[in-house]
Structure formats: structure tokens, C-alpha cells
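Final report, closing paragraph on structural work. Over the funding period we assembled a curated collection of sequence-structure pairs, and we close with a single example.
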Amino acid sequence: MFSPYGKIISEDFLWHTRGPKRGEPRGFAFIQYSTKEEAKLAKEKMHGRLACGRPLMVRLASEKYLEEAAAQNSSKAGCKTIKSGTTSTISGQVSRSAKIAAIKNKLKALDEERDGAKKPKAS
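Its predicted structure, as stored:
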């Protein structure tokens, strides 16, 4: 399905490993092309095409990582703009303590959101 757009180096299909859906596909896969241009071409041609009656969502793995990093940085106080390839989080070199801090920030935001929904506003 994706081979007409370039030389595929690797394919990684993900399957459920536990629970009642064990052995069934999880609904996504990773495909690595030999060049970035081939990957971009495949993305342009395949994004939105129907497969088994459902539209395919095709994006570069780095795009998803950049979107998540942007969401994580914008959730902190003081919104920062991300410059591609300049910060350690963009290059994929995220330290363990940075990951822990991000998880703690997310949990704190969820707690604040939950507490705000429970308490009626006094006017």
C-alpha cells in the first residue's frame, strides 16, 4: 500500500498484547522510508485515503512529537515558541527528570481542572 512511494526500510505494526483484544491490531503502524522526501511524498498521497472504509491519518513521527512538545510547553506558565531542532526536547534528548516534571505538571493541571468543575463559582 505504501511501497509505491519509495524504498521502505522498516515497518512496525502494533498489536494488542493483553486483554480481550490480544492479538488484534491496535490500528496504527510505523513505516520508515530511506529518505525524508519519500516519506513526505507518501504522507501527501496517502493522508485521507480510505482503507477498510476508514480514512488514513498519515503524518511524520517527528510531527507528532513536535505537536506534543508544543502542547506541553504551552501548558506551562508563559507560552514559548518552539524553534525546530534547537531545543533538547525537539531533538529527542529528554532527560528523565524533565519527563517526571512534565507528568507532574499534567497531573496538577488535571487536578485543578477537576476541582474547578466541582466547585460552583461564587459571584
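The radius of gyration is 19 Å. The mean pLDDT is 75. We thank the funder for supporting this effort.
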